[in-house]
Amino acid sequence: MGSQTSLHVNPFISREFVLVANQGSGNVSVFKVGLGGALTQVSGSPFTAGTGSGGMGVDQSGKFAYVSNQNYPSPTGSVSAYKINPFSGVLTPVAGSPYTEGSSPYAVAVDPLAGKFVYVVNIFTNDVSAYKINRRQGSLTQLRASPFGADGQPEALAVDPLGRFLFVPNTETNNVSAYTINPTSGRLTQVAGSPFGAGTTPNSAAVDPRGAFLYLTNPNSGNISGYSIDQISGALTPLAGSPFTVNGSPSAITIDPYGKFAYVVNTTGIFAYAINPNSGALTEVAGSPFGTGTSPNRLTVDLLDSYLYVSNGATDDISAFSIDPASGALTPVAGSPFGAGTGPAGIAVWGAQ
Fold first, then answer.
1. For the chain, how far is it from start to end, CA to CA, in angstroms?
2. Which of 126, 164, 249, 314 is the most exposed place for a label (fewest CB within 10 A)?
3. How many CB atoms lie within 10 A of CB 51?
4. CA-to-CA distance for 336 and 255, rounded, in angstroms?
5. Quick one: DSSP state of residue 242?
6. Tens digit of pLDDT for each residue in 5-23?
7. CA distance 80 to 48
8. Is residue 202 in a domain?
9. Contact 117, 181 (CB under 8 A)
């Protein structure tokens, strides 16, 4: 696949913030990343969202944040939209927010290249809502053809770094739906052959920074499905050696901005894997699993590829680790874990120059 490059690392970032959707308290905690990766909540945090705020997405420019609210037991959910103050990290609700959604919306993704579209999976209506972003205000307009059908109970989604393809694992039907994204309209079209087979109850997805490989966590089969992505069609082909075994029930995955390492959480901690840049194969990093809080939920790597952050749903906090750039091994950051709201779930990082 050639030498590794990254579309995500920006060496000129001077400020970084971590945003966490707190599912139990219905709000968003915002932290400033300090010396050594330590977190300090910004003034006014946490910021009000909706009931069951679980999904979190931030556009690449760091101007806007979007949070899905399940609103259970209501038959419809919503999406909260915020402007982000680039200096303080303070969130201000966008006019017209929140926006009505399908049933039990969960994961949120903003197209990573142009930042023009927002996608949200709706667990109980088995579909994906798509919105166009007003680039001045951050407000959302649902696309005319939205929502787009998925398969059984989608819980996650991932967009390739060039905004060409979107992938949605379906937990009930044990497969993954693949779509092409129209770069002008944002409309989704299912890839030929979609959905593609996966493990049991796939519930998280990540694409490497080059858009070459897709990985899914399969909790009930205790493994990770890996695929190569056809760069023209978006079709998926299982990698040699896939699925890759995990000790326990993996529930979330993220990939560092250089595409060297994959990190997976389950009930026993965080498993780190080195990614073979040519084959996409995963090799467990020595020292795995690395301990974290109780019921780790979601995780992300900062934009400078220095720190890993994990939301812990049962201990209401965020675990922070420094990343060894050579091995991928994790070392807890001083002061970790850092308190959040109740039941922290979706987590994202953004930075400003």
1. 32
2. 314
3. 16
4. 21
5. P
6. 334 566 667 789 999 999 9
7. 9
8. yes
9. yes
Q: Structurally, how many domains does the chain consist of?
A: 1
Rounded CA-CA distance 51/26 in Å is: 5
Helix and strand numbers (H, E) in the chain are 0, 34
Cα 351 from Cα 349, distance rounded (Å): 7
Q: Identify any residues that bridge with 323 across adjacent strands, giving them in sequence order.
A: 330
Q: Is residue 187 part of a domain?
A: yes
> Tokens 């049991």 label which residue?
200
Distance between CA atoms of residues 28 and 19, nearest Å: 7
Residue 35 host element (H or E): none
Q: What is the pTM of this model?
A: 0.94
d(CA 34, CA 22): 21
DSSP readout, 4-19?
---SS--TT--EEEEE
Residue 69 is encoded by which pair of tokens? Answer: 């609210």
Classify the C-alpha dihedral 278-262-291-34 as positive or negative: positive
**Angle in degrees, CA 210, 212, 216, rounded to 5:** 110
Model confidence pLDDT, tens digit, residues 146-190? 999 999 999 999 999 999 999 999 999 999 999 999 999 999 999
Please report, for the domain that includes residue 118, its CATH number: 2.130.10.10
